[in-house]
Amino acid sequence: MDIEKCWPTCLRLLRNNISSQQQFDTWFAPISFTSFSEETCELVLSVPSPFIVEYIEAHFVDLLRAVLRNVYGTHVRLSWTVMTDATNQLTQTVAATDDSTIVDQPVKTFGANLSPRPLQELDSNLKANYTFENFVEGASNKLPLTVGLTIAQNPRQNTFNPLFIYGPSGVGKTHLVNAIGIRLKELHPEKRVLYVSAHLFQVQYTDAVCRNTVNDFIAFYQSIDVLIIDDVQEFVTKATQQTFFHIFNHLHQNSRQLILTCDRPPVALQGMEERLLTRFKWGLLAELERPNVALRRDILLNKIHRDGLRIADDVVDFIAETVDKSVRDLEGVLNSLMVYSMVWNCEIDIPMAKNVIARTVGLSSTERPALTVEDILQQTCQFFSIEQDEVLSKSRKATVVQARQVAMYLTQKLTTLSTTRIGMAIGRRNHATVVHSCQSVAERLQQDSDFAECVGELEAQLKG
Question: Which parts of 208-317 are beta strand (E)?
Fold first, then answer.
């Protein structure tokens, strides 16, 4: 057996059986041959991160076994030499998982079984002013509030794990999850509690990849007792979703609490890995609805009392009935009224409230809500008489492509979403596809008057 040629042969066979060059480059190209003993039939391969081993075992284990047995023989035994500390060049050799000739150690707990390290000091990132004491209860938030209090009392129960809180922007999701975290720290000071936005998580992961410290990144998050992730709809890239999937599994299997917020329920999340969506549904889905008039009035009175303001009841009622979109809007209006009152040295009355509301959030309580990509996609499909599943599929039929491109064009024009987010929402396309689609529609609008009329009519319908 020519040992030096065997591993390159394996790589060639693996590449021939993997559909994507990118997948091969990501998961197999970083693997290097270390040694092979013909006496013991043990093959040792080196990898820069245990995450690579986890992913291969989860997605390519059967293919890898077949290739190794084909090249090295049916009795080959595989071991991994894993880089555990790139700075100090420390490694650890671990047997691979196989249902016949290799192993005893399951790789699914691979990340947790590496050499133990002292836990890092932890800043929980919790916002100190977002507490239960200043969170006003109402019919629209009673369920998630009650569950949040229960979790704070007993963070190791599994009934509400994960707690998935969803609702539109500005209804108090961030306030509530911070309140849960703060109460947890008060009752269980030994717990490692961490609040982080999904965007920051993604930035940290990208930085870890660039610095070749993904192992440290995963190990840190696996050490958390209560992990609070805000705005999980911001998990855009597949690599980030896969990494969070492994962290989620580890924490959940070890009875660590996960609390997630999102601007929509899991069923409406597009561009998210299906296996991650199923895990979001494991515990409790709790909706935070827009506050009704009674709750808006209570929120106003709470803030007025807290800030030492004096506002007549009829002004409070007017604000509560007029500012109906979010708690943030209510607080913004009150802050503005306080400043106006101080600058002009006058009492806060309804005319002043009307003026401030008109300048900050608008007086119309019947204003259409902002368009979403889901709204645009649905109406575009109806307009062109195309099934939405077809538009989200890989179909290249001319009618389907036209509807898909128009949906992307109008979403870019009528929303503030990035091309990456648009692509993920409309069939999990990439940034380049969205840019090309928008350019194609724009050019056709200049050349085809009938097409321009059609798209103009659709845009008018969307704007209402």
Answer: 226-230, 257-262, 284-287
Q: What is the mean pLDDT of residues 335-350?
A: 80
Q: Tell me the pLDDT band of 267, cut-offs 50, 70 and 90.
A: confident
What is the distance between the alpha carbons of residues 175 and 68, in angstroms, rounded to a whole number? 53
Q: Would you tell me the crossing angle of helices 214-222 and 238-253 to the nearest 10 degrees?
A: 40
Burial 166-178 (b: 16+ CB within 10 A, else e): bbbebbbbbbbbb
CA distance 303 to 320: 13
State yes or no: pLDDT of 101 exceeds 70. no
Q: Looking at residue 96, what is its pLDDT?
A: 60
Q: Are 327 and 347 in contact (CB under 8 A)?
A: no
Rounded to the nearest 5 percent, the helix, strand and coil shares of the chain are 55, 10, 35
**Residue given tokens 């209090």 in the structure block:** 149
CB atoms within 10 A of CB 214: 22
- Is 131 exposed, middle or buried, given 0-12, 13-18 or 19+ CB atoms closer than 10 A? middle
Query: What burial class does residue 346 get, using C-beta atoms within 10 Å of its C-beta: 0-12 exposed, 13-18 middle, 19+ buried?
Result: exposed
Q: How confident is the model at residue 369 (pLDDT cuts 50, 70, 90)?
A: low
DSSP state of 233: G
CA distance 198 to 287: 19
- The secondary structure element, H or E, covering residue 165 is strand 163-166
Question: Which pLDDT belongs to residue 365?
Answer: 42
